[in-house]
Amino acid sequence: MASLALTSANAADMPARRPSPWWWLLGLLLFAASLIVQLPAAWLVKKFAPNNPYLQHVSGNLWHGQANWQLGVRPNQPLVGTVDWQWQPWRSLTGNMGFAVKIDSRQTHLTGDIALGRKAWQVIDLSGKIAPETLRQLVDWQLPDTPLVLKNVQVKKTKQGYPKAEGTLNWAGGEVGYPNAGRVYQLNLPTILGTLSSEMARGANNASTNGATLHLALTNEQGQRLGDLRLDNDGMLDVALTQRLLKTMPKYQGKGVDDSVIVTTRQPIGALR
């Protein structure tokens, strides 16, 4: 009994253990993070992008919000829509600011994730469809009423180019009018399957050999090559079209192996408009 009383007395005399400084630091960081994600999104846009021409009527906060967006792809005919976002806190563990996003513009609907870092950005699992009216505003071509379908598109962009790209873009084809040098060339395109990948820039065919290019390989439903699109780190687009694709032009008289490249062009990506 005496030993038990002595033990109780010693326990009472022991000083209370204080929390480790690391726990204080963790608590402070969590408190600061909770304040940051509650900041109004409109205030953040005004603070860090005061002359931003793309986002309007911003509501919500960093955790969850919505905004109207517009792109001036055509004079007096901006492409408009809405974007919803939901913060993904676990992406902060990799040093990125991540969001689940939903993009809408009339009949265009896309969903996916984006990750923003100091030296890179990444689109993750982007899927959905881009409606014909949206495509017509992006490129000055005569296009049929068939949407472009995206499945599991992933693209990573760094200062060195596009080190990661995958996913598919499918288009059902149809009558297309392609303007070039004052003329409009008519094509009756088949169903086109596009496969994204990343590849090193090739010095022989590409003026920019710094970094990786974004490659879109075009094939038909049978897996036969139709062409290739390559976007380099300088925003230049290389287009290669095969004999097989050009044979879809009603008045085309060229001859050659179907897989041979007949037409090659290089121009800024913005020139497509």
What does this structure look like?
The protein has a domain at 139-273. The protein is 18% helix and 47% strand. The chain has helices at 2-13, 21-37, 41-48, 132-138, 243-246; strands spanning 55-60, 64-71, 79-88, 97-105, 108-116, 120-130, 148-158, 161-171, 174-180, 183-189, 192-200, 212-219, 225-231, 236-242, 261-268. It has a 13-stranded antiparallel beta sheet. A two-stranded antiparallel ribbon has the order 9-10. A hairpin with a 2-residue loop joins strand 9 and strand 10. It is elongated.
What secondary-structure arrangement, pairings included, does this model have?
Blueprint: H1 2-13, H2 21-37, H3 41-48, E1 55-60, E2 64-71, E3 79-88, E4 97-105, E5 108-116, E6 120-130, H4 132-138, E7 148-158, E8 161-171, E9 174-180, E10 183-189, E11 192-200, E12 212-219, E13 225-231, E14 236-242, H5 243-246, E15 261-268
Descriptive tags:
47% strand; alpha+beta; 13-stranded antiparallel β-sheet; 273 residues; two-stranded antiparallel ribbon; elongated
The largest sheet has its strands arranged as 1-2-3-4-5-6-7-8-11-12-13-14-15
Q: Evaluate the radius of gyration.
A: 27 Å
- How many helices? 5
The backbone outline, from C-alpha atoms, is elongated
Flag low-confidence runs.
204-209
Strand residue content: over 45%
Q: Give the biggest beta sheet.
A: 13 strands, antiparallel
Structural class: alpha+beta
The helix/strand series, from N terminus to C terminus, equals: HHHEEEEEEHEEEEEEEEHE
Total number of beta strands: 15
Query: In angstroms, what separates the terminal alpha carbons?
Result: 92 Å
Arithmetic mean of pLDDT: 85
Q: Percent helix among the residues? A: 10-25%
InterPro entries: T2SS_protein-GspN
Family: Belongs to the GSP N family.
Protein name: Type II secretion system protein N
Keywords: Cell inner membrane, Cell membrane, Membrane, Protein transport, Transmembrane, Transmembrane helix, Transport
